[in-house]
């Protein structure tokens, strides 16, 4: 069974005139929460050769992915970064997920709201609003590949808050 982990970036610096949104970094409170949630996820997720991590290339998302991957034991050099997740509509994020190879069984996607919450709700018909560092864990039906993932086809197994 395939599992999708949608993870919102950790709490970041406030918006300001001195730094554009894309370059905002996570703050210490965000890092602490990300570490706590990543440790909880580590009790439920075992990384293997069929695991893939994709992250928005925005600073705060990549920094969150790095924290989670260090704790989970996923090689930081193997994180696939894409700007396409930054400020993306949930359908655009789904398009990226639909392009995953069939060998991928566990997919972790680090990104932003509202895209990730909307995607969770679209895929599972749940009502979730992911706060910073929250993880939505969705399972696909037996014998489903990520290429077949569409509205209402996933089950929301859990959220880690």
UniProtKB/TrEMBL annotation:
Signal sequence region: none
InterPro entries: His_Pase_superF_clade-1, His_PPase_superfam
Membrane spanning residue stretches: none
One matching Pfam family: His_Phos_1
Official protein name in the record: Histidine phosphatase family protein
Species whose genome carries this gene: Sphingobacterium hotanense
């Amino acid at each position: 069974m395939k599992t999708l982990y949608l993870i919102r970036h950790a709490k970041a610096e406030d918006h300001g005139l001195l730094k554009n949104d894309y370059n905002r970094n996570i703050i210490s409170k965000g890092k602490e929460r990300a570490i706590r949630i990543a440790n909880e996820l580590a009790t439920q997720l075992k990384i293997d050769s069929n695991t893939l991590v994709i992250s928005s290339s925005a600073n705060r998302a990549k920094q969150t992915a790095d924290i989670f991957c260090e704790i989970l034991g996923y090689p930081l050099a193997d994180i696939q970064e894409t700007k396409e997740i930054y400020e993306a509509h949930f359908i655009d994020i789904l398009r990226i997920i639909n392009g995953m190879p069939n060998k991928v069984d566990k997919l972790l996607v680090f990104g932003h709201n509202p895209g990730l919450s909307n995607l969770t709700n679209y895929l599972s018909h749940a009502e979730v609003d992911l706060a910073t560092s929250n993880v939505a864990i969705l399972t696909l039906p037996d014998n489903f590949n990520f290429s077949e993932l569409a509205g209402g086809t996933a089950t929301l197994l859990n959220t880690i808050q």
